[in-house]
Amino acid sequence: AEDGIRDYKVTGVQTCALPIFFVCKMICPFPPPGVHPPMSRVLIVDDEPTICWSVREALAEEGHAVEVAPSAEEGERHLEAGWQPHLVVLDVRLPGQDGLSALVEWRDRWPGLTIVIMTAFGDLDTAVRALHHGAFDYLIKPFDLDQALRVFRRALEPRINSGTSDLVTSPKSPPADEGHLVGRSTAMQQIGRAHV
User: Fold this and answer.
1) pLDDT exceeding 90 applies to what percent of the chain?
2) Quick one: which of 12, 28, 69 has its CA closest to 20?
3) Is 28 exposed, middle or buried (0-12, 13-18, 19+ CB in 10 A)?
């Protein structure tokens, strides 16, 4: 049963306990005992299987529904299909379209997306450009998983505290000028001060 519950948390579909789950859903709108609906939806876009696995498992352990895409193109297909994540964890270096250009495009098409950028190239220029284009925060690989989880919790905190289940689509923000950074975390604000 525990394996079935874990599968439900990770993919949004319960496997081992599938018949029991759907019978309970037909009888009442509440999940059966021991099965809890995911807290938030998270999309990981990275082509490194070990990173995807560790981040997915850590987020699923906290109750989030997690999907993984190995490329920006595949991640975009998730978004276009209507699977609306509350958080996107997006790598910069990807096969095909790179993460920074995907960040710009997705923030324009889906202004409510909260995106955390990951990169193995921790240069200041990449961080500043990600901030200019609306990234919530920035993780440098290899990163400590506990540190990453703290960033993800901060990114998801407004949605969890509000108790809403749907992705909130905010109005489009005006383009950031060269002297203004939109990163909201303490670390990103420190990078912004260093850049000025």
Assistant:
1) 49
2) 28
3) exposed
Of 40, 56, 62, 66, which Cα lies nearest the Cα of 168? 40
Model pLDDT, residue 160: 57
Fill in the DSSP letter of residue 148: H
The answer to whether residue 87 scores a pLDDT higher than 80 is yes
Question: Could you tell me the pTM of the whole model?
Answer: 0.68
Enter the tokens of residue 108: 């324009």
β-pairing verdict for 41-45 and 87-91: parallel
What stretches of 17-169 adopt beta strand conformation (E)? 41-45, 65-69, 87-91, 115-119, 137-140
Q: How many CA atoms lie within 13 A of 58 on its CB side?
A: 17
Question: At a CB cut-off of 8 Å and minimum separation 6, what does 181 contact?
Answer: 128, 131, 132, 188, 189, 191, 192, 195
Higher-pLDDT residue of 146 and 185 is 146
CA-to-CA distance for 115 and 94, rounded, in angstroms? 16
Note whether 38 and 64 are within 8 A (CB): yes
Which residues lie closer than 8 Å to 114 by C-beta, 6 or more apart?
A: 86, 87, 88, 136, 155, 156
